[in-house]
Amino acid sequence: MTFPGGTSVTRLSVYSGACSDGLEGGTPHMHTASTEAYVVIGGSGALQTLDPRGFRETELSGGSTVWFTPGTIHRAINRGGLEVVVVMQNAGLPEAGDAVMTFPPEIVADAARYREAATLPSGAGAEEAVRHRRDLAVAGFLRLSESLANGDPGPLREFYDSAVALVRPRVAGWRRTWEDTVARQTRHTAEVLDALERGDGTHLGEATLLESPPEARWGMCGNLHTHDVAHPQVHSAPS
Predict the structure, then answer these.
(1) Which pLDDT score is estimated for 157?
(2) What fold, for 4-174+206-229?
(3) Are 52 and 145 in contact (CB under 8 A)?
(4) pTM for the full model?
(5) 10 and 86 in contact (C-beta within 8 Å)?
(6) What is the DSSP letter of 89?
(7) What was the pLDDT predicted at 229?
(8) How far apart are CA 8 and CA 71, in angstroms?
(9) Mind listing the pLDDT tens digit for each residue in 3-15?
């Protein structure tokens, strides 16, 4: 029942409204274990990335498809109605804390302070908290960018070390999620190939249509329409 490839899919409307540096867009962050892909379906903007090789800005417009591996700090810039379909590796891991935002180092190095800065309130005040969280991460992102531009990779290495320390307690749970999704689906595909090689098409008789309705929520990069691919609706009979 896992979504293809053990991935997840989300529709993203990148935030508008100026950040602390005057640009419009999302909250800079990275993933520690998962690769992320953007398929642009409307509007225009850019993807700012930061890694040990330095800063890069990649233009985005309808039809652009880019993806970035763990450790790539990324920030979506909105220049007009930027709409993206996000395909995320390892469904369940990013939702369980795989993303680490680029807050200033004194916050990222302190698990309690990081959790306080990252957590959004429910109900009233959420929108203001989203903006505050974004600006805090932008401040850290700019400091990291400046250090790399000046030839000093030390702050980025320290950010990576702090990020690993933040997520380390979650890894055992992540492994269980991965075993139940990506690894299980890989084993299933191997079994299907073995069956086909034998001329056995029994699995075709188990054909199923599944559906996952969207759920709106605040995200790091913008307004999200997420899909719960772990608990889809199974259409077992014609309507």
Answers:
(1) 98
(2) Jelly Rolls (2.60.120)
(3) no
(4) 0.93
(5) yes
(6) S
(7) 87
(8) 19
(9) 898 999 999 999 9
DSSP summary character for residue 2: P
Confidence bin at 50 (pLDDT 50/70/90): very high
Q: Judge whether 153 and 145 are in contact, CB under 8 Å.
A: no
- The residue among 86, 82, 99, 102 whose CA lies nearest residue 13 is 82
- 8-state DSSP, 124: T
Number of H helices, E strands in the chain: 6, 11
| CA distance linking residue 55 with residue 211, whole number of Å | 39
Distance set, CA 113 to CA 59, 106, 135, 154 (Å): 34, 9, 16, 22
**Dihedral of alpha carbons 41, 45, 46, 47, sign:** negative
Q: Which amino acid is at 134?
A: R
For the segment 126-138, what is each residue's pLDDT rounded down to a tens digit? 999 999 999 999 9
Domain ranges of the chain: 4-174+206-229
Q: List Cβ<8 Å contacts ≥24 apart for 155-162.
A: 155/105, 156/50, 156/52, 158/105, 158/109, 159/102, 159/105, 159/108, 160/71, 162/105, 162/108, 162/109
Tokens at 61, concatenated: 């417009």
| Six token digits for residue 146 | 């400046």
What's the pLDDT score for residue 123? 78
Q: Exposed, middle or buried by CB within 10 Å (0-12, 13-18, 19+), for 88?
A: buried
**Phi, then psi, of 50 in degrees rounded to 5:** -140, 125
Quickly tell me which residue has 């309130």 as its tokens: 121
